[in-house]
Amino acid sequence: MMRFRRLVVAAVVSLSLASASQAHAQGLTVSLLDRYLDSLRQQSGVPGLAAALVQDGKVVWERGYGMADVARSIEVRPDTPFQIGGLTQALAATVLLEQCVETGHLHLDDKVQQWVPSFGEADPTITDLLAHRSSGGTYKFDAARFAQLTGAIEACVRKTPQPIREIIAEGLFERLAMFDSVPSQDVADGSADDRAIFSDDQLARFNADLSRLARSYKVSNGSASVTTSTPTGLTAASGAISTVRDLARFDAALDDAVLLHRDTMATMWSPATATNGTAMPTGLGWFVQSYSGERVHWQFGVVRDAYSSLIVKIPGKHLTLILLANSDGLSAPFALQDGDVNASLFARAFLRLFVG
After folding, report:
1. Which of 13, 109, 280, 324 has the most crowded CB, counting CB atoms within 10 A?
2. DSSP label at 279?
3. Is 61 strand, coil or helix?
4. CA 123 to CA 305: how far, in whole Å?
5. 208 contacts: CB under 8 Å, gap ≥ 6
6. Can you give the pTM of this predicted structure?
7. Quick check: helix, strand or coil at residue 248?
8. What is the biggest distance separating any 2 CA atoms in the chain, rounded to whole angstroms?
9. What residues contact residue 18 under an 8 Å CB cut-off, 6+ apart?
10. Residues whose CB falls within 8 Å of the CB of residue 116, separated by 6 or more in sequence, listed in order
């Protein structure tokens, strides 16, 4: 019996040491990521960058780098709002799949014109637009074409068409307690429509969030100047405003199957195919590929000369990196629209550290 007890104690000690060793190694890896991100930010001329690392649905590390407003010396924080550009596609695809497809109101093989009569092409389906499959049947990134899904989302969620900013605000932001997120910058205009859609408390919160919005910058020859104007409306392709903390809540809700059924997520994160049968780099509202044997799901955003964003998920490790920036330097230099996340120095540093 004594020998058995000693064996049990030895096993517990061994497991504890292994756990401590793994935690130490993880800490060193995160420390390296921290240094790489700040170095890459400075090399890319990004004035301000927010980062969050999500493990098993929890934020295990977050950081702000640089300035949200250079002139006023306001530093970036994990709760600093940014325009997220093309990351809006992941939000819109989730809403469409949950509230339209899973309810049976809309089918992925429906023709787009069935839902958006003004759409100028007769044959493309909802899947074609979600996957950036061109009229020629091949992959071609086209944010303006993806934006046409706005009408389909607005028409299918309810019998009476509902503005997409209300759908995103209710279906995601309110539901997931993403209270530092704003459906679009133009809700600050105080239009009659917004006063009818949102409560006074919601509008007050949106305005408070927008007052903290990171200032956008155009970087040229290493010098940053304030961008005088940025897009203010919301479409299925762009326009939402959020923080790395709030997007971590969205990421966790996806992984926990709070928003979508697991079979729907499997479809969303499976490569679409071109008409010749070859795999494309896209699923539905996301890019999908492999890195050193690990599946990678990702999406990016660029608001030219203003903002950029990147989310990279390693589902096999239950790990996600979320980055938001107040210039286009996080995404624009790397031609991510071509469908390879390895082109991004930021993504490559993350993948090399956590996948190898």
Report:
1. 324
2. B
3. strand
4. 35
5. none
6. 0.91
7. helix
8. 80
9. none
10. 148, 149, 151, 152, 155
pLDDT (tens digit, 9 = 90+) per residue, 192-248?
678 789 999 999 999 999 999 999 999 988 789 999 888 899 999 999 999 999 999
- Cα(88)–Cα(127) distance, rounded to whole angstroms? 17
- Per-residue CA distances from 273 to 139, 278, 279, 313, 354 (Å): 9, 5, 4, 21, 29
Output the CA torsion 215→219→223→228 (10° steps): -50
CA distance 192 to 75: 34
CA distance 14 to 281: 43
pLDDT tens by residue, 329-338: 999 999 999 9
CA distance 269 to 272: 9
CA distances from 327 to 40, 42, 202, 238, 317 (A): 13, 12, 28, 16, 30
Q: Identify the DSSP state of 274.
A: -
If phi > 0 it is left, if psi is from -120 to 50 it is alpha, else beta; for residue 314 that is beta
Q: Alpha-carbon distance 318 to 336, whole Å?
A: 23
Structure tokens at 209: 């969030």
